Protein 1
Amino acid sequence: MADCIFCRIAAGDIPATIVGRTEDAVAFRDLNPQAPVHILVIPTRHITTMFDADTDLAEVAVGQCIRLAVQVAKREGLEPGGYRLVINTAKDGGQSVFHVHVHLLGGRAMAWPPG
Ligand code: AMP
């Protein structure tokens, strides 16, 4: 989508610190990190929210994002300490960018419950 900032990052039209890429997913550092490691993993193909993820294509795309997040977490030294994967969804989920993304947060102990 032309007006989607994350589609533009995936296409290389907007700069980002890319830390991983597969055919179907891109990982880059969050501009406003909430933990020592804060990386976003997005599907290359636009999916607006998890509301749209109940399809075979989206299942593969989101699965690829999780897989890339796990690989990046390992490279970032977050095993065996651990980390958190989060997908904020729509208004009540706190989503602000409407292109599905997995937050990979690590490098400190996480609190629960989340805010
Ligand atoms: P969410 O609130 O779950 O939609 O998360 C959106 C995230 O995208 C926030 O953590 C922002 O800091 C991050 N973000 C927004 N624009 C950019 C950008 N151009 N590059 C990297 N991260 C971004």
Protein 2
Amino acid sequence: MTSPDHSSLQQRFPRDFVWGVATSAFQIEGAAAADGKGPSIWDTFCRRSGAIADASDGSVACDHYHRWRDDLDLIADLGVDAYRFSVSWPRVQPAGQGAWNERGLAFYDRLVDGLLERGIRPYLTLNHWDLPQALQDRGGWAQRDTVHRFVDYAQGVARRVGDRVAAITTHNEPWVVAVLGHETGLFAPGLHSRATAMQAAHHLLLSHGLALQALRAQGCRSRLGIVLNLSPIGPATAREDDVAQARLEDGRSVRWYMDPLFKGTYPQDVLEHLGADAPTLEADDLRHIATPMDFLGVNYYTRSVVSASGAWDVKTSGKALTDMGWEVYPEGLTELLLRLHRDYRVPPMYVKENGAAFKDSLVDGRVHDRERTEYIAHHIAAVADALAQGVPMAGYMVWSLLDNFEWASGYDKRFGIVHVDYATQRRTLKDSARWYRDFLRTRQARAEPSAAAGAGA
Ligand code: FCB
């Protein structure tokens, strides 16, 4: 595969399409206990034996907390419109409730101003997984009170920076928090209960809806939405049991989130499948969850192929695999976006994460990451295909700006378009970053704004 020509690809997007790069707090900031920050569930989880592949943690990460000015210069140099970052809840409110940490708030205040000074729109995420440990000690997302703690946190952050950020995302990938955190135990807080996972998922969704209402009530003018990890999920064969299994998986990972957010119901087939593990709901919960959003964020990396016996092996797909073992399948992104547009009344959508881990080597100051460059180029083309078919796409953000702490995989998996030498913290633009920068420079003679323009904020 070769990368499409820059300007012909660029011409497939409206002038106001938002191009960005994304990171999250725990994965890059480090400074785990600096300036009054409290511990998060990921600080705790990293200490669990065997939890992180290389036995690493987030205590230093990319040291972004101290190097943020240089990192913002790097972002500006790429020529992006937007930067998606997350706020570390325990940095700004160490116990998850009560006292605010002024030094933590001031960090994000400076970050937001630094972005604006460089002409970059701040896209803020409130929860990219690093829940304050103090709240986990009281039951975490499985506990209904955490919903109200999150709403207070959202309001506090918005009071401080909400006048200057273009968009606020409540949660990043609630499926991951619920299922990987509470059912399979692969991610923090590392629990193993399906019932707990489903209750956590419900509380995440409820806190999203209530936070939207609270932020609007206090006059916050940022665009508000959520970010989901979604994939097209298909059966390995046309056999009835494979088809049924794929349908259930789609229910558990796509419809379980999309239906309540956009239709105000949980999917009946999944409720029946869960039986006694279905979450407890209170009156009006679903109505709150369905609070209208200004945008929907979609994170896409690969498709999912399901067989009832679990026998399907991605290695037999014939497609290239990334260093995560994920199949490279750009057409799945077009398929997914078309499906969301067809099945739900979606607001303007952004791809809020897309990118790939590959083994890189830094030689003479260069990283020739052709596979990553092609991955990104082909997925951008897949977004253009969706746009051409009438899907309201408003933006695209590369995951990730920097190589960083890739959760349970530690530092071994590199998703950055900028290489990080962890020994020296030196940043080096990979060829993919140079490609993206050149691609963004071709944004001159472009088509008129699309119908999704209103979401461009
Ligand atoms: C997503 C996460 C992000 C990053 C990518 C590879 O699930 O939101 O933090 O780890 O995967």
Protein 3
Amino acid sequence: MITHVFRSEPNMNQVKPVLLVKRDLDVATWVQALNQQMPALEVRIWPELGDPSEIQFALLWMPPPELFTQLPNLEVIFSVGAGIDHLVACPSLPRNIPIVRMVDPGLTSGMVEYVLYNVLRFHRGMDRYDAQQRAAHWSALPQISAEARAIGIMGLGIIGQAVAELLVTMGFKVHGWSQTPKVLKGVKSCVGEAERDAFLQNTEILVALLPSTVATVGLIDARFLTQLPRGAFLINAGRGDLIREGDLLDALDRGHLAAAALDVFSQEPLPVGHPFWRHPRVSITPHVASTTQADTAVGHVVTNIGRWQAGQPLGHVADLEQGY
Ligand code: NDP
Ligand code: OXD
């Protein structure tokens, strides 16, 4: 990933308007946080562009397809989310403007909570106890210690590392998989395709925290799932299109996978008739593992606007070639 991009000519005196496109109801919270943390910044809210040629920055989630054709002088794009797939999918996205990914402590903690909740639920057999309660059946399952439970985290970026750190603190056996090697206390780092099968064969609870890119779409297919030990669990909070959904259903139906907790889907909202909704061993949340929090996220945006104005490097710039 590219992490630093400089503005060609530093300019400390002007803060040109930022355009906010966020197609949900909490726009007012974002405007308030931006106003508080950078009062000199004029915030315009899509579709009220004013003079579009004045807009230098855009803070976006799922922009309308033609948006960028209307912004001739845009210099930096900020993604409201950690993933940039919603921008890459936009047909008018310019390829020569830096895209700053969202790095927000509030977003990260929400993801850590979601993963921890599901890891503990699978690790302690809570779904099985729920089923036993429905049958008024009293029976103790064997208790496995955290030290004996192997968790594999796919994607050891900002979020994957925070998840790994907590699980290590709790005593779990943690290993992670990424494109480049990582040095993280207590975490075995596995890299690339060459080490993927061994990583999967040693994973009882698989946590997918990968971005959606050309290289990751469809990665979790029948062959991939077969590498996991029988009875493994899957948690996917990365992106829905990482998974070939038919292959996952098949692995669940054959009992190769014990259960899956899914927050993201190839098609969102998940269609009403989709088999995941009624599958007894699938639990669904509607892409809410975590949400970017305006109060903690705006600091990242205003710091980068300040840096750009001062001709300093931007942080967390996505690599469009890699797609994350
Ligand atoms: P980062 O960019 O910090 O981390 C991405 C990680 O994925 C890196 O470790 C990277 O490896 C690894 N990776 C990317 N491509 C490959 C590949 N082909 N093979 C192996 N590893 C790969 O992202 P974040 O941690 O901030 O976020 C991760 C994703 O989580 C987001 O892109 C988004 O899709 C999802 N997300 C979902 C949310 C939800 O509510 N469900 C909320 C927030 C995020 P390397 O380090 O070697 O580059
Ligand atoms: C993100 C998301 O990418 O919420 O931040 O999905």
Protein 4
Amino acid sequence: MSEQHERILHYIDGKWVASRSGRAIDNVNPADARQVLGSVVDGDAEDTKAAIDAAKRAAAAWRRTPAPKRGDMLLKAMRLMDERKQDIARALTLEEGKTLPDALGEVMKAINVLEFTSGESLRLNGSTMPSEMARNFVYTLRSPLGVVALITPWNFPVCIPVWKIAPALVSGNTIVFKPSPLTPWTAKLTLDCFIDAGVPPGVLNMVHGGADVGSTMVEHPDVRAISFTGSNQIGQQVYAEGARRMKKVQCEMGGKNPVIVLDDADLDLAAACTVQGAFGSTGQRCTATSRAIVLDAVADQLVERIEALTKKLKVGPGIEGGIDMGPSVSEMQMKKVLSYHDVAKSEGLRLVTGGRRVDEGDLKHGWFTAPTIYDRVAPDARLAQEEVFGPVLSVIRVKDWASAIDAANSVPYGLTSSVFTRDIGRCMEYADEIETGILHVNSPTMGGEAQVPFGGVKATGVGQREMGATAIEFFTEWKSVYIDYTGAKRDSKIY
Ligand code: NAD
């Protein structure tokens, strides 16, 4: 497979088209900014409106296509993605920076989502209800919304689009999809699987660009619903603007995910999972571990273990073998990480390891920073409260279980969390008390399976959950049907 791509175009009404403005931007390898992988068109409001018009025209025929047929197309897309997974993973590593095994894992997850969601086409069930009146048949059916907008970030550029596109399609909606400008190549390769699987022209459209494209999607009267994943800053705007226009909106946003390590935990396991959760994907997962909340009694032993494991991590281009951690996705993202090291310095935090850019040899051409641990961080320090979205772990020492839960719940976010303990009572209490949408016991904060709902609480998530059967809830609405089969006018008692 070539390490470069041609200019990536919009996909509107079944055709690859250039941007009306003629604008394009370079797609650069974050592991080596000297390498321009290719370019992508930069769309505007006019391109976006053309895509929305196409989706609107295609809506009637698509909603009338039997759901199992729509499901078949997802199965075909799944098979194609499986055949192409190595190429998609390489493109993902080259433009986003995660290691090749990590990228392949992401593609496998997308394949699982396609498999699961294709089956949902056979389960778009409603129900029947007994009526208060004789010879009156009452049932509910699920109906598609119409044109939906899907707006996605760069950090899971295969998986997140797939976990939105698949349920939207299977439910009978037509789509305008806007990937992140940082990951257009994987977006194109992902889209190709659906196109080659036979999704008809106009049903699935892709427009590249930034705020212009995104806000046109949110504001356009023909878009019925918006499914957004990204930062809180943009998500809040999308939610507010969507709500003002009475649209259905689903936003999955930032996280500040904790692990809690109790004094009866298997400390080797807790350390290994904490390091994996904090530095896997360069800490650029919404589910990354960014806080380790540890009971005083075992804090020294845990810190010693995570320090030793962290120091063994090999930082470098994810496309090479034997690399544990790739670069930040962009110079801007790297600068954000480095700015938090300045914050840590100004707050007098205790640096255990890392805290710097990695720029030895050729790595100076990429956006690498060292995996970093700060110890004895107060629960209300900026590093313990704000999403860094990079390889930075804050250790928060606490005296007991109650303070651990308080510290864990003290952030505005609530995506995922873990507890390490052998005490089943604590596990159950943890599930009751923790304010996160997903929680793990004795395993890392990251990870979610295709058939299980995914999403956060508090400032992390608003709207219905993604993935699993619940994904269909967002992309459909209910109709309640009353069929009187007496043929007579009756004195109804139904109000
Ligand atoms: P971002 O908010 O900068 O961008 C997300 C998308 O919104 C991009 O496609 C972007 O071009 C688009 N956008 C920009 N301005 C817009 C506007 N005015 N209107 C509409 N769309 C607009 O986020 P990012 O940097 O791409 O991604 C990182 C963030 O995503 C992190 O905060 C991370 O936690 C979050 N994330 C959350 C989840 C989750 O499920 N909770 C999953 C992955 C990533």
